[in-house]
Amino acid sequence: MDFVGAYAPAHLKFLLEGFVVTLEVAFLSIFSSFLIGIIIGVLRYSRIPFLSPLLAVGVETIRNLPLLLIIFFTYFALPEVGFKLDKFYAAILALVIFESAMLSEIVRSGLNSIEKGQIEAARSSGLTYTQTLWHIVLPQALRRMVPPIVGQFISLLKDTSLAVVIALPELMNHAQIINGQNVNYVIPIFLLVAVMYFVVNYSLSLVSRRLEHKHI
């Protein structure tokens, strides 16, 4: 093991550049999949004829596919039908597709956890279905959904490493390039990569706990 050589300034800078790409992909994927997941979850909860069952089929299909397959599809298969994306956006699209399905199920379950009595009371007081959903159901459900949603965000951040299969210049890709220079760098580099992932994910866990305790 060569910690001195592995942690040379040039290597650390290279890893940080990859980590920035990882965080960019994670942030854009989290933001997009969160919005889409809420919309799909609400539409499924509302049980709209034809639309809700159709969305349920799509969600269940995506949830039971490996993310790696979806990444391959967005990068290698879409160009065959004239929709070519570079590595960065292909990775984001794959993550958004997969995570939106996962988050929509969390949202739907959270909405279903709200007591029916509250909904009936709101409707009897004159609120419309949309007003009841927006002002009564969704705010309470979102508070209950904080831990599983943050847990899904943590999984998403870790899943960005799968984009290494399409040579996206993210953290794992840069780590592999450095490791290719010297086999003695493998353990030091992977230890540092593990610490970088841990710091971000543990920080998200702390935020989740803080938000959860705040609303207890």
Q: How helical, in percent, are the residues?
A: over 70%
Number of strands: 0
Mean pLDDT: 90
| Unreliable stretches covering 5 or more consecutive residues | none
- The CATH topology corresponds to MetI-like fold
State the order of secondary-structure elements, H for helix, E for strand: HHHHHHHHH
CATH superfamily: MetI-like
Q: Classify the beta-strand content into a percent band.
A: under 5%
Which CATH-level-2 architecture? Orthogonal Bundle
Q: How many domains comprise the coordinates?
A: 1
Structural class: mainly alpha
How big is the Rg? 21 Å
Main sheet makeup: none
> What is the CATH class name?
Mainly Alpha
Overall form: elongated
Per DSSP, the total helix count is: 9
Distance between the termini: 48 Å
GO molecular function: transmembrane transporter activity
Transmembrane segments: 20-42, 54-76, 88-107, 183-204
Protein name: Amino ABC transporter, permease, 3-TM region, His/Glu/Gln/Arg/opine family domain protein
Membrane topology: Multi-pass membrane protein
